[in-house]
Amino acid sequence: MQTHHRNECHGHERMPLPHMQLPETRPSILDPCLESEPWIDKCPCADTLVLFLHNHPIAIIAGSNLECVSLTMRLNQLRHRMPRLEFEVADARE
Predict the structure, then answer these.
(1) pTM over 0.70
(2) What is the bridge-based pairing of β-strands 48-53 and 56-62?
(3) N or C: which end of the chain has fewer CB within 10 A?
């Protein structure tokens, strides 16, 4: 059985990361204020999907080609849904 290093299946070697200031909070992938749309694409590895943001892979997900389509559609639905109203959130807590 052939194994792959995490970055090898995307056709590039691991490169050192530049020193950068990390934000105090991590944004949610569902945040409508993100500058670009995240998307899910197939990986050359078998039964593997990749979540991309700003043309960078940010997560590797186990899944088939069929699941790629449904997960992409669901991600789009979640990102573009109407936000819940404040009283709906309060009712859910009770």
Answers:
(1) no
(2) antiparallel
(3) N
